[in-house]
Amino acid sequence: MLVIAMSFGYAMAQDDDKVIRVDTKLAEFEVLVEDRDGKPVHGLSQSDFRIFENGRERKIDFFQPVLAQGSARPLVVVFAVDVSGSMTATEIDKLRSAINGFMDRFGNYEAYFAVVSFAMEVKRTQSFTNQPEKVRRSLSSLDREQIGRSTHAFDAVDEAIRMIDRNGPKNIRGRSPKNAVIVITDGFPVGDVVSPGTVIDRANKTGTSIYSIILPSFSPARGDTRPLMTLFEASGIVSRTGGNSLYATDNNFEPLFRALASEITASYAIAFYPDEQSANINAPRNVRIESTKGYRIKQNRMSYELAK
């Protein structure tokens, strides 16, 4: 398994009990935009969106795409690689190649990368750097762990989020970076200390979205080719943080990483100033973001409340 941490949003968060407290004046959301065929949509402007708070339309006070004409939003990425026995040596080699290609696609961006490896324990392998060669060297030194019965995937994602929060760049040349987590896994974590709910809360608080590439399992008893729902997917850790899940059905990771790179550059940061004079000022507030062109919007969270 492998986890890559970056950050942006995708929203289908439906849990009204999970509310993010906004500690700044702006209530900020990350959105991913797709067309009817599920393909990422690039090149949109602020006028292509509408935002509603508790059903009332609000003015958009801040808008920033990952990719705009002549400029690109900075990226902060953590690669967390599962080296447990569930990953074969061949799969790890293919992942190294795919990650290297992923970094190459962002050569024109201001991007910072870090590496975490995990099996029975989580280890920081490479601190944040804007030099891809350092990441390549750290990946080349990874060895598959032959023994052990646990795979701490949730703990690894949590550590990646903590690295982004504590050590990742917060402002690069006057621009806030895009953060995300990409997880490559068989989808069956074992032995984690941190709960999925805690990871989801921390991801939303730091504006980090979690993506997954699943090495699928199938049930011969079902007589079809549909992958089994994994524990990782069932936890909601992807859908409730603005991510997306892809299946590595043929162990070819290159096209999956190309798809993720395309999604990253089709994400947008949208924010507005909350009304601090309204009634029930500290009550949770529901937020809905729409496309004026009828595109599908996936936002990283569906509600927030002001910090008390």
Outline the structure in words.
- The chain is α/β, with parallel strands linked by helices and 308 residues long.
- The chain has one domain: von Willebrand factor, type A domain (Rossmann fold).
- Helix content is 21%, strand content 31%.
- Strands 1, 9, 10, 11, 12, 13 and 14 form a 7-stranded mixed sheet that branches. A 5-stranded mixed sheet has the order 2-18-16-4-5. A 4-stranded antiparallel sheet has the order 6-15-3-17, with no helix packed on it.
- A hairpin with a 3-residue loop joins β10 (111-118) and β11 (122-129).
- α1 (89-105) runs antiparallel to α2, α1 (89-105) runs parallel beside α6 and α3 (153-167) packs parallel to α4.
- The protein is globular, with a radius of gyration of 19 Å.
- The termini are far apart.
- Mean pLDDT is 82; it is low at 4-19.
